[in-house]
Amino acid sequence: MLGLEVALLSEPGGRTVNEDACGHWHSERRLCCVLADGAGGHGGGDVASRLAVRHILDGCAAGALDAPGGLAALVRDANRRVVAGRSLDERCRAMHTTVICLVVDYLAHTAEWVHAGDSRLYRFSGDRIVERTRDHSLVQTLVDAGLLAEAELRTHPRRSELRSALGVDDAELEMAVGGPREGIAAGDAFLLCSDGVWEHVADRTLEDLLHAAASPDDWLRAIEDAVAAATRGRRGHDNFTALAVWASAA
Asked: What is the pTM of this model?
């Protein structure tokens, strides 16, 4: 059995409203972590992200993960919930949100995840990144096609244009599913984060900060300091949110 530690960080950055949301739920067998980064042409991004997180966590508590393919079905249902929520008021008409959802089974030592948009999940082993999600974005498509260098993901002027997010018709929703990955072990770590983190903190820096941290809270404080240093003097920089999970021997 694995022991799991969780830490959260969510800050408005240089903006007045934090449109990111995150949370977690656990049972005697599983931990579910969810992070969402909302947006909308006339506002409502904060509504969309909170709707998605709450719906997924409530679904976990209601037993949705017990069914085969339950996590993907739950995220797809959260998309319908966001679409339905657009009728709440005028400012929500164009709302949508990214989502990344991680489920760790600490009895079976497995992990699986589902995401839509450009919020990311990183998996670390030995303080090194061994997996990360691929963004549903225009620039990721250009990178995958060999038309853009990987390093340009963080600086390209169209980096915020998404191919998929919650808040679209079912037929248009593109989701990616990872896992279940077996062999999750003590010393492994996961980081869920919005683009307000990864745009400013390079992958190697994430690894170095993880290696130097004594706890997941320490790691997130160091990531927060790195974002602050990278955005110093920039007005209106994005909200930034991160959720860290560390595995240890129970």
From this structure: 0.95
